[in-house]
Amino acid sequence: MSRFVGHARHEVTVSEELISVEEPLSGLLASLPLPEPIELRLADALGLVLADDVVSQVTVPAFANAAMDGYALIARDVRTATVDEPVRLAVDGEVAAGVEELPTIRPGRSVRIMTGAPVPPGADAVVPVETTSTLGVDVLVHRAVAPGEHVRAPGEALQPGQPLLSRGRRLAPADLGVLAAAGVSRVRCIAPPRVVVISSGDELVAADKEPKPGQVRDVNGPMLAAMVRAAGAVPFSAGIVRDDRKALMYALDTSLGHADLIICTGGASAGTRDLLPDVIGALGEVHTAKVAMKPGMPQIRGRIAGCPIIGLPGNPVSAFVSFEVFARPVIRSLQGRRDVQRPVVVATAAETLRSSPNKRSYLRVRLARDGAGWLARPTGPQGSHVVSSIARADGLAVIDEDVSEVPAGGQVNVRLLVE
């Protein structure tokens, strides 16, 4: 059934038709399937979320070892050593990292030792080489050391049963180092979600094609696929789909087998060729809404065979902003991440920022340092078709529904677009 229906009224949209931004977002997040964990090598787990708690099974270090290059010795032998009156000790060779056979240190004797090398039996301290000098084949120690000084004790870093990393933690490079130290070579993580991007519209042609009269290049397909990848998911492009019921059904149906999420762009408004809601509804469940936001008012969400579907507007800026507001948090949730929203900073408006009545505005701004704070300046014309306005932006200035204007010098919340 066509939604191309006139209402014989003065305004395009009245406030009673609008729903809040939070309503469709909460609906999307509440309907997501539980992510399935997979086992991966450490090298492939960076940036992913742990599915299980990890506990150490080993002692690290497994043996006492030198914390510095110097001489392993018995601390009481050099208790009187000073710069002017050093203690002289015999040297019984050298211990390097990785050796297995060790000499036993007797009173009045020492051994040269390298950082990380095992401390020989009998020795209880290491004196740094910088505080020694040599006299023939002997060493002169110019400072006293306490028992255990410059020695890494067994279990000082890790002990059996010690919690290492908690479930839900996003793995950073240092985390992989901790796991490797504990002998953990594989971990269970939440797999990056697979996201299919579908661009619909009879007017669309690929970027490498010359548009004919009435045609435009597909901006949203490549842009949204890149945004999917930047959000940590794996994008798949279904290409450009015509405004045809059977073509849309086929594109959606054939995408289900390799998609954890499908993002469609175009066909979300009220035109006679905006078929996406009807097609989704025929295959599964669908919800359409006019959201109190600008740009990006028409929004679609649904499910087909358990796979969530997000329908974004066709205008490039509307698609970009809608992705940030709705699709990105969904992708982050499918990764098992807790930080589903972008960081927000408070900035000073460099010029007056105006907003439409009853709508939350997302204005593309450029941030610059202003003393200890930030200065937000619009990137140019804010029309939903002006792609350059998003290419120059590193933040979205968010103006709430009940605010029509932020004066120059006023404060505004800016959602960061940069990591």
Looking at this protein, list some descriptive labels.
7 helices; 29 strands; 419 residues; 7-stranded mixed β-sheet; alpha/beta; Molybdopterin biosynthesis moea protein, domain 2; Molybdenum Cofactor Biosythetic Enzyme, Chain A; 4 domains; 32% strand; single chain; Molybdopterin biosynthesis moeA protein, domain 3; elongated; 6-stranded mixed β-sheet
Quickly name the level 1 CATH class of the largest domain: Alpha Beta
Uncertain segments are none
Arithmetic mean of pLDDT = 92
Relative strand content: 25-35%
Query: Architecture of the largest domain, according to CATH?
Result: 3-Layer(aba) Sandwich
Secondary structure tally: strands: 29
**Broad structural category:** alpha/beta
The CATH topology name of the largest domain reads: Molybdenum Cofactor Biosythetic Enzyme, Chain A
Give the C-alpha Rg: 32 Å
Q: How many strands, what sense, and barrel or not for the largest sheet? A: 7 strands, mixed
User: Which shape, going by the Cα principal axes?
Assistant: elongated
